[in-house]
Amino acid sequence: MTPIWLVLPDPFSSRLFFDTGIVSALRARVGDRLELVLDAGDQTALWSKRVAGIRIIKPEDLMSAQGPEKLLRRIDRSLDARIGFYPLSLRQSLRHGFNRERMRPGHQNWFLDSSRAGSLPDWRFLDHAMTSWHYRMAKAVTPAGRRPRVLRRWRSPGCASDRPARSGSSGTP
Predict the structure, then answer these.
(1) CA distance 108 to 116
(2) Tens of pLDDT along 131-162?
(3) What is the signed CA dihedral for 26, 28, 31, 35, rounded to 10 degrees?
(4) How far apart are CA 112 and CA 93, in angstroms?
């Protein structure tokens, strides 16, 4: 039986997929094949409670980092929390007045949590540098010859990527 992974990378996606019934509809349709890759930060436990009987895969279970690679990932995550997607998005929203009246520190919706905008001054050139860093080509990657666990799982027996692609299908999981 080939598992079907639903990746919920943040609280916003988790709320959207749970509250609109997508998770329960998928569960009804594919049964025990559904597995969640759940990374909702400090809200992960909250969303985990809503999925009784569905296997939850934590992102750290998919990556094996050691030595210098582990240090690079730690630095990358630290930078991402300060100058990555959410800080960049919030700075843009604040600059253009989008949802300013709804924003407050610690808001449950990360897009409205003004504390995630970071402590850097509101200078356009900093936003440009943050954008360049976030969308750069060279992100933390696994050295050649070492595959993260996610690839080992995808290539394990019974996984869709081991089977020939059907006509009209890309063959990717």
Answers:
(1) 11
(2) 887 777 655 555 544 545 555 555 555 554 44
(3) 30
(4) 9
Return the residue matching tokens 């003004």: 114
The phi and psi torsions of 36 (rounded to 5 degrees) equal -105, 130
**pTM of structure:** 0.52
CB of 63 within 8 A of CB of 149?
yes
Alpha carbons 132 and 88: distance in angstroms, whole number: 11
Query: Residue with structure tokens 């998005």?
Result: 89
Contacts of 27 (CB under 8 A, 6+ apart): 34, 54
| Nearest residue to 39 via CA among 151, 150, 170 | 150
Interval 106-124: pLDDT, tens: 888 888 888 888 888 878 8
pLDDT in tens, 50-87: 887 888 887 777 766 677 777 877 787 788 888 888 88
Tokens (6 digits) for 73: 């990932």
For residues 154 and 5, is the Cβ–Cβ distance under 8 A? Answer: no
Closest CA to 56 of 26, 42, 35: 35
Element (H, E) at 118: none
Q: Is the C-alpha dihedral spanning 122, 125, 130, 131 positive or negative?
A: positive
Q: How many CA atoms lie within 13 A of 91 on its CB side?
A: 22
| 57 strand-pairing partners | 37
